[in-house]
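WARN retry 2 of 3 for item q-0093 after timeout on previous attempt; input resubmitted unchanged.
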Amino acid sequence: MRILAATESGEVGVPSEDWCAAATGLVVVLDGATARTETGCVHGVAWYARHLGACIVDLAGDRDVPLTGVLRAAITETAQAHLHTCDLTHPGTPSAGVGILRDTADHWEYLVLGDVSVAVAAAAGEKVISDERVGATAPDERAEANGYLIGSPEKQAALLRMKHGELAARNRVGGYWIAAADSAAADHAITGAVPKPGIKAMSVLTDGAVRAVEFGLLDWTQLFAVLHDKGPGELLRIVRQAEESDPLGVRWPRNKKSDDATAVYLPSSGL
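OK item q-0093 returned
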């Protein structure tokens, strides 16, 4: 099985809160959610993403357990790992978006929760599975934050208000769902399966890499062409080049100049 991957922190010298791993018939990608507030956790978001990801990889080998069950058990196991040192009831407790691909005899199963996307290039075209619920929360606060320049005091204050709005909607009916301390969030993941015949390639990407599409730099057909011809590293380079050309977020309003970015690519030769 052939898998290509690239991951990069959004800020030099700051550990990435993305995490990825791949094994035969399995890809796991996590996108740790930027905290912005206190978390009640002494470890931090990057620690949470690493531990949750490792648990998912360990548990996903049992094909008799559905992906929602894998994620549910991984959230529980990770919570137990810092239950006695951290306040898991804190509203800002670390969380992460999750994307999983796992093969079966005839299909590739997928699970998406939060800011991770699964993309499939097939004979009939591209199928993209994204969770839009996070971006739909706190719309007024989000719009206000987008009106300020990156790095300005006004932007920072607006982002904090936006974060509080997001946290108020996190893991609630009518809000959005993400892996945190409550394993019940796994039951709200977007899941499905794609038949193996006809699949040309697949990719799992955090939202930092999906900026290539969100900025209008590439469509999904072009994104797969970049992955095929030059690999995931080139995709991240394209995103970083665009971000550097618009450091204050005038052309592309966003929360931060550069986000952690991860892209995992499975070409047809690896399926």
